[in-house]
Amino acid sequence: MQETGENVSESVILPAVADLTEAGPLKQRLEQALGSGIGLTVDASAVQRISSPCLQVLVAGMTAFAKAGGAALSISNPSEAFRETATVLGLMNALELSK
Amino acid sequence: MDPMEAIKQTYFQECDELLLAMEEGLIAMETGEADSETINAVFRAVHSIKGGGGAFGFEILVGFSHVFETAMDLVRSGKLDPTPDVVKVLLRAGDKLSDHVAAARNGTGAAVDDAEVKAELAKLTGEEPEDAGAPAPAEFEGLAFAPVMIDIGDEEPVAPPCPVWHVRFGPHAALYAKANEPYLLIRELGMLGPIEVTADLSKLPELSALEPEQAYFSWDVVVRDCPDRTKVEEVFEFVSGDCDLEITEETPEPAAAPAMISAPGLPSLDDDEPAAMPAAEAQPEEKKVATPTETKATTVDVIKQTIRVDLDKVDRLVNLVGELVITQAMLSQRILDSVQQGQTVSAGLGELEHLLRELQEAVMAIRTQPVKSVFQRMPRLVRETAAQTGKEVRLEIEGEATEVDKTVIERLGEPLTHMIRNAVDHGLETPEERVAAGKPAEGTVKLSAEHRGGRIVIEVADDGRGINRTKVRQKAIERGLITPNSNLSDEEIDNLIFLPGFSTATTVSNISGRGVGLDVVRRNIMDLGGRITIGSNTGKGSKFSLTLPLTLAVLDGMIVAVGEQTFVLPLSHIIESLLPKSSDVKAFGSNGMLLNVRGVYVPLVSVGRLLRVPGASYDLQNSVVILVESEGVGRMALAVDAIVGQRQVVIKSFESNIGHIDGIAAATILGDGRVALILDIDGLVAGCREGTGGRPTEYQQALGA
């Protein structure tokens, strides 16, 4: 998705267990990226468990980036567990993931 | 009791049951008999313990069960194959969980060393051992804890016209704080039937205004093909205080659901995802079951309705019925005495007696419990002992549904523990020795229970080396328990191992071998009015048999007369009764007496003299001798005036009113309304040993005459 060049996108890796305590740090990271106007790729390949609070942050992030225009937030390489959780919770569309 | 404390009590009672269910399920997994329902039951048990623990703020308990639950969840969803190694870790985790529960109950908190098991669990789940996110139950939220029944899988045949359930589920922040996760709940709904999920994102604020630990999402879930509303409710049972929940029934119309995600449409994502499957039947675990119907027949228990009743109340009932039986006996005696030609009266009285007996049996049955609760603890014991001794052991359990009085159950644990340990530590050989002897490396310990002739028989059998009689004999001589030239039968040699201070173990291990095992076992069993016997077959194994009364409230007794008094001797202690010839009685020392019973001399004691009963006959010619077996002293002959009969008596303990009296166990009320004392044979014998100092016995005079 980010084809333009080196500095336009940063990435953050979600931990294997993204539970309640990860929601705060994740939010900060998203806000930071949003503030700097740089796109952010959330690497969800390592996720084995993700909690709803983290997903709340991601969905809110999606909306926020879209509103700000320009740089985008995207989720890359979602693991099976991530997809499964998002699917069961009916959040695939909100997270802009294809089924 | 303050209400909180009472709820806590209930929680721990639930925990006991849940731990049992968990253990049972894990063992089924170990033996490969588990189906998905079993695995689910284990998961739910761990989950429920965690949930309740969270409500009471047992953080350590919750932390551990959380890791355990995660592992179970992976097994449940088919992501983690329950290989023997995995199940072993799970079993150990189960043991630790019991320890945690015990620690929480005793209020000792942090005493459980679970780091190793936790690390192994983490390895299974792929988490870092020190899980920073280990959920700390934030705060106590009202009465969030609700006792949860374990779902024993009462899979009803699905009725064709199924209602459609519309579930509106809005978690509160507390739900997340207690480490619950909507994903798991909704997935569980998906196991009830096909689901359609719509996430409601309308409450989600701007990113900047978002509180990371707040709850904003809520969900609408449509569940189809689930006939039972309670099943839907059960899914949310644990979080009911921490979320808004609305379950409504819709008439089964084709529900138009724009942008809804239909679970059955997902298999392309993932081919082994149970949540995505339309129904529980399609779960991958089911594949492991060779014949599902057969397994179900064994694992699906019939759900019985139960209530919890204070033991005090039951005891009062038992007591009253006992009184009723006595009054009935008294009354019929008097009626029959006064009415001479009372044909019709006596038929009625017979009927009454019959009914009362039945009533008494029914009331006694309230106090009975299956021995399962004790037997369930043994697999863990075997595992631990086997690990400590480096032996391979398989425990077979039979007849765990056999019922016996609660008091007996409670006091059965310790002797059984000793015997099982003994069987593993002393009975079984090491794997190498077994292979060398042409036996499978894995030893078997068999624990069984059955009713036999109004008593319960519990057997602990091993297929080990059997008792080494030469060694036992040699040891007994070393310890001065027998003389070198005593001539003992095999059976007598086997029984030497019950003597206090006896141990054949060459080294003292911390499991057994301190010589305090089997004599304690025997004492405990005899305290319960039981007997223990041993059978051994060199090279093939040994077998301990316990025979116990079904209840401690009623006793089979022999009624004897001594002077003006009537006494009851517990039948369990009596070997035989006989009429001695004076030529069989020999004086021993200055004041002791011995009775020659077919060539073996046993001490002879007069009950009348010992208890100083007025009017007792000291004339041996008029006495009956009852041969009894007592713990510690062995056989002993008791002389009484006459045997009145043999019957069941209701035990009336007087320890709470009068205190303990040496030589007397309790009292009972006889049919004619008289009070009779029940003799405590062991106490009596011990007392007589001390009391035989320097006084000439009347028996000697009788003999001299």
From TrEMBL, chain A:
Gene3D superfamilies the record matches: STAS domain (3.30.750.24)
A Pfam cross-reference name: STAS_2
CDD domains linked to this entry: STAS_anti-anti-sigma_factors
Every STAS domain range: 19-99
Name the record gives this protein: STAS domain-containing protein
Organism whose genome encodes this protein: Rhizomicrobium electricum
Species lineage: Bacteria, Pseudomonadati, Pseudomonadota, Alphaproteobacteria, Micropepsales
TrEMBL record, chain B:
Domain HPt: 1-104
Protein name listed in UniProt: Chemotaxis protein CheA
Gene3D superfamilies from the UniProt entry: Histidine kinase CheA-like, homodimeric domain, Histidine kinase-like ATPase, C-terminal domain, HPT domain, SH3 Domains
Residues modified to Phosphohistidine: 47
Keyword entries, A-Z: ATP-binding, Chemotaxis, Kinase, Nucleotide-binding, Phosphoprotein, Transferase, Two-component regulatory system
EC nos: 2.7.13.3
Histidine kinase domain location: 302-552
Reactions accelerated catalytically: ATP + protein L-histidine = ADP + protein N-phospho-L-histidine
Region spans: Disordered: 267-293
Domain CheW-like: 554-690
InterPro entries in the record: Bact_Chemotaxis_CheA, CheA-like_dim, CheA-like_homodim_sf, CheW-like_dom_sf, CheW-lke_dom, HATPase_C_sf, HATPase_dom, His_kinase_dom
Database matches in Pfam families: CheW, H-kinase_dim, HATPase_c, Hpt
